[in-house]
Design goal:
The complex is a heterodimer of chains A (about 210) and B (about 525). Chain A is mainly α and about 210 residues long. Chain A has helices spanning about 15-35, 45-75, 85-95, 115-140, 145-150, 155-180, 190-195, and strands spanning about 5-10, 195-200. Chain B contains 15 helices and 13 strands. Classes of the chains: A mainly alpha (about 210), B alpha+beta (about 525). At the A-B interface, helix 1, helix 2 and helix 6 of A face helix 1 and helix 15 of B.
Chain lengths: ~210, ~525
């Protein structure tokens, strides 16, 4: 490793809180959801359903706060997708990382995410999670469909989408958790998400196009 | 340091906000709305009578026949006979169909003793409310007498001893009669039960949820009738207006409208919802079931919980004799598993019901209907389907039988059975029993008899268990062997899944694990070799 390690403050208090709250909610939802699906027996069906519904609704409400934060702080710009350096990043994770190269797109306060992360997190926060919440809310409100004029839906369709998305999130978690070990040290990213401060590899200039709000 | 203290504090507050409501909800336990409503509806019970029949002058006389008793009753209750003659209890014909097609006195059949041969089979009439079938008037005391009495034997003895001049015995019998005639009650369990607990020719034969165990049940057997519970009599729910007792199931539903007393306080109090309402549970998700699942489905986890009930009857095995004589063989419940006169029986206890969509109507065959003997013939079956009107999932006892049918006409045969009529039970001659039995119905018989598999259903509605003994969610919401695994056409969480998607997802998840595992190993190996090279 060359150069002096540098520490930067990357994640604000709310951001960290939101990340870990969402992690806890998703963990509970995955466990109870798979139990309701009949994969295993943990808390019993009735408790699983109740915990799942309560947690799901809590998540839905919390997600509104997150969306509000995103837009009032302008943080949403961190998620604007780009193809620039995308191939370089992919090349890094599939080749350069084994050769001890430094990351081609280092983190900074104004550009927390590399192009691959931008795309992943955007599709997660803007597509997958909302679909999961909407389908979950519909699932939960099944008995009101007729009153809401939604009786063209079938539970089978909604269940299909909800289950498929749950599996997609499960696969995301597996890769996401592993990717946290690819920082300057194995726990550098994890530590950053707990304390807010990340140890960076050799500092490198942030390019203008990456900066939020520029 | 200060920041991290603040962080912990924030986390604690969040945890409190998230979990406090749940904890608070668990602290005070108001009863479920359904219990509260039912308590309110049930608060007025007890004996409402304003007459003591032992003080009635009209009853202080000698009775030499049943008809004399009835005449005396009618001398005050002058409208009672006309009311009774219009009831199904008297007519044994469905009031909802024209003519004499449907009903025990008509062409209806079952897969037990099959038919009453239009009330010509004398044995069947022992359960009719008349003194002698429909011939000698109404026997009011079947339903209103507190004392259980074999009236036929009593009057026969009376006549016999009177002719013999045995004054003392005559007085004794007359005292018994007098006591029975003056102990008048509203129908109680033993009155209704004398017939309804013994349908099909014996105790617990027909109904799995109606047998003699309901005379003095514990609340664990029947939460409403339990003598240590609410102690309801039958008429608490089977309300009666002008001797018409509510709650029978024929081709029309017992309850045509799901109404609670909150909506209509003069509605007959017959259904669960009348008292418990359509949202009886504390927990919302359970209430979400009441539009599709009848209360009975979860609250009667098993029927025949005290006495075993008959589940199968094979008439084709009847007629075997030992040393030229008919015999009876008893099985593990102390009930007959073989009778020469009737065939082979199967008995079961603690039976899980079968579940079907049910709109309250049962469709049944009559002796006139043509059947298809190539499969199992449904002598009766529940009517209803998902999404249709009032249809809900409902529990049933399904009684299986092998019973005789006419191989030429493809109709079910109504053999004449009773010994009193020189029927099959005396002669063991199917041809004679069939010929005479069908003749009594004015129906043709070809002379060629076969046996056909049949089923007959009973809605299960009695023996409601206390709430702690209801079915768990998993009884139905499970991938395999669930109670509702036979019902198709809808998605049920926990039961149904998309097999292909599940498979693809697990391949993907395991693939992802393998990929990151390999990636990690690659990094470790590469890292190690770089260090060595340095």
């Amino acid at each position: 490793m060359t150069g002096q390690p540098k520490r930067i403050y990357l994640y604000s208090r709310y951001e960290r809180f939101w990340h870990w709250l969402q992690m806890a909610l998703i963990a509970v939802l995955l466990a109870t959801g798979l139990e309701v699906h009949g994969m295993f027996v943990l808390s019993g069906f009735q408790d699983a359903v109740n915990i799942h519904n309560f947690t799901g609704l809590a998540w839905l409400i919390a997600f509104f706060f997150f969306t509000f934060w995103m837009f009032t702080t302008g943080e949403w710009k961190q998620y604007i997708p780009t193809t620039r350096k995308m191939l370089t990043v992919i090349r890094y994770y599939s080749y350069g990382i084994f050769r001890g190269e430094t990351h081609p797109v280092p983190k900074s306060k104004k550009a927390k995410h590399n192009p691959l992360q931008r795309l992943t997190y955007l599709s997660l926060a803007a597509v997958m999670l909302p679909i999961q919440m909407i389908s979950g809310f519909l699932y939960w409100s099944y008995n009101s469909w007729a009153a809401w004029g939604l009786d063209f839906l079938t539970l089978s369709q909604v269940a299909f989408v909800h289950t498929a998305m749950a599996y997609a999130i499960l696969v995301f978690i597996i890769i996401h958790v592993y990717m946290t070990t690819t920082g300057a040290t194995v726990f550098a990213h994890l530590k950053a998400m707990i304390t807010g401060w990340e140890d960076l590899e050799e500092p490198e200039a942030v390019e203008d196009w990456e900066k939020a709000g520029s | 340091m200060q920041t991290s203290t603040k962080n912990i504090f924030m986390l604690a507050i969040t945890a409190c906000l998230v979990f406090l409501p749940a904890w608070a909800a668990a602290q005070d336990e108001p009863p479920a709305p359904g219990r509260a409503m039912a308590r309110q509806a049930g608060v007025l019970s007890g004996d409402w009578t304003t007459a003591d029949h032992s003080e009635m002058e009209a009853l202080k006389k000698t009775f030499e026949s049943g008809q004399q008793i009835t005449e005396t009753c009618l001398s005050c209750h002058s409208l009672a006979d006309d009311q009774l003659f219009h009831t199904i209890h008297w007519k044994w014909l469905s009031p909802y169909e024209d003519g004499d097609l449907v009903g025990k006195a008509g062409y209806s059949i079952n897969n037990f003793c099959i038919s009453t041969n239009k009330m010509n089979d004398k044995k069947c009439s022992s359960c009719h409310i008349g003194w002698n079938g429909k011939e000698d008037g109404i026997n009011c005391l079947v339903c209103h007498g507190e004392k259980d009495m074999d009236w036929k034997a009593q009057f026969k003895d009376y006549q016999f001893f009177k002719e013999m001049g045995e004054a003392e015995l005559v007085t004794e019998i007359q005292n018994d009669i007098s006591a029975a005639v003056t102990q008048i009650i509203r129908p109680d369990r033993q009155n209704c039960g004398s017939c309804h607990f013994n349908g099909g020719g014996g105790e617990a034969v027909k109904h799995g949820d109606l047998d003699a165990s309901l005379i003095n049940p514990r609340r664990t057997l029947d939460v409403h009738m339990g003598i240590d519970g609410e102690n309801f009599s039958c008429t608490r729910c089977h309300t009666t207006s002008q001797h018409q007792v509510a709650g029978r199931v024929y081709s029309t539903p017992a309850v045509s409208e799901r109404k609670s007393l909150v909506e209509d306080d003069l509605a007959p109090k017959i259904s669960c919802e009348s008292c418990h309402t359509a949202s009886p549970h504390k927990e919302g998700k359970l209430n979400d079931h009441t539009d599709m699942v009848a209360c009975q489905s979860c609250h009667i986890p098993e029927f025949a919980r005290a006495h075993a009930t008959e589940m199968t009857w094979d008439w084709s095995k009847a007629g075997k004799l030992k040393d030229g004589k008919p015999y009876i063989e008893k099985g593990k419940f102390g009930r007959p598993v073989y009778k020469s006169i009737k065939g082979e029986f199967g008995w079961e206890k603690n039976v899980a019901p079968q579940y079907f969509w049910y709109n309250g109507s049962v469709a049944a065959l009559t002796a006139k209907d043509v059947i298809d003997p190539s499969g199992v013939v449904r002598v009766s079956h529940p009517v209803g389907e998902r999404g249709e009107g009032q249809s809900r999932i409902f529990p049933f006892k399904v009684h299986w039988a092998m019973q005789p049918y006419d191989k030429v006409h493809n109709t079910l045969i109504t053999p004449l059975l009773s010994e009193e009529n020189n029927g099959y039970w005396k002669t063991f001659d199917w041809q004679d029993a069939n010929t005479r039995g069908m003749a009594l119905m004015d129906l043709p018989y070809s002379g060629e008899m076969g046996f056909v598999e049949t089923t007959y259903v009973f809605p299960t509605t009695h023996m409601v268990a206390p709430k702690e003994n209801t079915l768990s969610c998993r009884a139905c919401h499970r991938p395999e062997n669930g109670r509702l695994s036979n019902l198709a056409g809808f998605y049920m969480p926990g039961r149904d899944h998309f097999a292909l998607m599940d498979l693809a997802a697990w391949i993907l998840a395991i693939g992802a694990l393998a990929a990151v595992g390999l990636h990690a190993i690659g990094r470790i190996v590469a890292n190690g070799s770089r260090k060595e090279n340095r």
